[in-house]
Every structure is written in C-alpha cells, then in structure tokens.
From TrEMBL:
InterPro entries in alphabetical order: Secre_tail
Ranges of residues in domain Secretion system C-terminal sorting: 46-116
Protein name, as recorded: Por secretion system C-terminal sorting domain-containing protein
Signal sequence range: 1-21
NCBIfam families for this protein: Por_Secre_tail (TIGR04183)
Domain of life where this protein originates: Bacteria
Taxonomic lineage: Bacteria, Pseudomonadati, Bacteroidota, Cytophagia, Cytophagales
C-alpha cells in the first residue's frame, strides 16, 4: 500500500510539473514552437487624449528613433513618421474616431489607443 501511495504521489507531481511546463512552451506536431509573451506595462502615454489638433508622447522608456505609425481599427495606415524625433504629432487631418499609435524598432514595439475628436 505504501508503495502504491508513493507511486501515485510521484505520478501526480510529475503531471503537475509537466502541466506547468506546457503552459510555458507549446510544441506542435508540425515542428512549430510557441513561446508565451511576457505581459509588461505599456511605457507609452499619449496626451491629450482625446485629441483635436496634435498629440505629445511621453514614455518611461526612450522611444526616440522608433518608427511611428497611426492606423485605424481596420489596419488602414493614416500617418507614418520613420525615425520619430520626439516632437508633437499633428493629428488635425484625421477624422473623428479611434486610432492606434504604434512605435516600432526591429522586434520591439509599443502601441497606445488614441481618440480623435474634432469640433467641426
């Protein structure tokens, strides 16, 4: 009986360890390996938000030199600034709506929601 309990306990510990490992790395039978992403707080803040004419960007991490792109929820790009230099971004030509502002450099990227509310 003691041997059975020891075997069952070892099996349960092995299953728990394997389940924990499977949550971290997913391997498919087709050779694809998926590593989970680590959720980090977004260092980018856009203000004023909602915006009328221009926005300023503040960041806890240096993002000068990143490519800036503004696109809508369908993925249509409205504004691109390669090698953004930290200046205010003119959004006066954008229509009222919700946009995504994305900063990209290589594999590193940050995004933030922007609401444009023009008084027309």
């Amino acid at each position: 009986m003691k041997k059975i309990l020891t075997s069952v306990t070892a099996l349960l510990l092995f299953c728990a360890f394997q389940t924990q490992a499977q949550e971290k790395i997913i391997r498919s039978k087709y050779g694809l390996t998926i590593y989970p992403t680590i959720k980090r707080p977004n260092p980018v803040t856009i203000y004023p938000n909602p915006a009328k004419s221009s926005i300023r960007i503040r960041s806890a991490k240096p993002i000068i030199g990143f490519d800036l792109e503004v696109f809508d929820q369908t993925g249509l790009s409205y504004l691109k600034q390669p090698q953004w230099n930290g200046e205010a971004v003119d959004v006066s030509k954008l229509h009222n709506g919700i946009y995504i502002v994305r900063f990209t450099r290589g594999r590193e990227h940050y995004s933030q929601k922007l609401i444009v509310k023009q008084e027309r």
